[in-house]
Design a protein that fits this description.
Helix content is 75%, strand content 0%. It is mostly helical and 300 residues long. Helix 4 packs across helix 9. The longest helix is centred in the last third of the chain and has 32 residues. One of its GO terms (cellular component) is membrane. Belongs to the EamA transporter family.
Length: 300
């Protein structure tokens, strides 16, 4: 069962790493940020609700408070898409994903503020490694980062904040409800948010543009459907910290796919920075596993 859980989480995270390919392709064809986000969310909304209804899942056992909380948590998915894809309008896919991965240390802030869990010494070491990795990965050493659009950098960092919020809050609300139903409710919240943010795009939305719907379907599958479903199926079979470590595969997958398919260049110094970011995730999560093992031994 553990191998099954590891496999599902690994595949789910790897799929999310392919989103830049579809997003960048959409921008290359001249589609706007709003059009891509609307297409993605509508596909996700339709497919997840069809899947939920086909399995006979209903919200009957959920309270109104739980429904609103799940949908509100889903808005963080919509925000992540808006900020992350928006960053890719100004930055390379490689740098956008590096900024998204700042959720590693941003998540510590959420834990501190909402769970009153202060960062440990290992957490701070992990933070230092992460920020060092960002210095190398963003090419600050060569002065390249200072030539980048500030708006792109801001959007990239905001995507890290919203993604960290999704990771934190999704583990707090209606955890006993069916994973597929939770995903459908979350994408409902995301869809409403995206339609409100991009309401000006709705009157002129090209409903008969098949190419846009294909791109939207691709983004939805690898960004809004497969990852949450695979995580929902695999995460309960393994520890949360191991799931977080496995989810870091998204970073190299996104960068390698950007290199091979989008022809983006990544220097050896940048690869060194990327490895440092991955190391920070492993150090942070493995330390937590060690603490849990020690505490269990003391109890026994």
């Amino acid at each position: 069962m553990k191998i099954k859980g590891i496999t599902l989480v690994f595949i789910g995270a790897a799929c999310f790493g392919f989103t830049p390919i579809f997003v960048k392709t959409g921008f290359a064809y001249g589609y706007s940020l709003g059009e891509i986000n609307i297409a993605q969310m509508l596909w996700g909304f339709i497919l997840l609700w069809v899947l939920s209804l086909s399995k006979g899942l209903t919200t009957r056992g959920m309270t109104k408070a739980d429904l609103w909380k799940v949908m509100a948590t889903g808005t963080t998915v919509g925000l992540t898409s808006i900020f992350y894809y928006g960053a890719m309008q100004y930055l390379s896919a490689s740098l956008a994903i590096i900024l998204l991965f700042q959720f590693v240390w941003i998540g510590m802030i959420y834990e501190w503020v909402f769970s009153k869990s202060k960062p440990t010494r290992v957490n701070l070491i992990s933070l230092a490694i992460t920020l060092t990795g960002v210095v190398f990965a963003s090419n600050v050493i060569n002065g390249k980062a200072f030539d980048l659009p500030p708006l792109g950098l801001l959007l990239g960092l905001l995507s890290g904040f919203s993604y960290a919020g999704f990771i934190y809050f999704s583990g707090q609300v209606a955890t006993k409800s069916h994973p597929i139903l939770r995903s459908a409710l979350m994408v409902t919240g995301s869809t409403i948010l995206v339609l409100v943010v991009f309401f000006k795009d709705i009157p002129t939305y090209p409903l008969l543009d098949g190419r846009l719907w294909i791109i939207g379907a691709g983004v939805a599958l690898v960004g809004a459907i497969i990852p949450p479903l695979f995580f929902a199926g695999g995460a309960p079979l393994i520890s949360g910290r191991l799931a977080n470590v496995l989810s870091s595969v998204e970073l190299p997958v996104a960068i390698i796919s950007a290199m091979l398919i989008l022809s983006e260049s990544v220097t050896w110094l940048q690869w060194f920075g990327i490895l440092l970011i991955l190391l920070a995730i492993v150090v942070n999560e493995m330390s937590g596993m060690m603490v849990k093992v020690k505490s269990r031994k003391r109890v026994s």
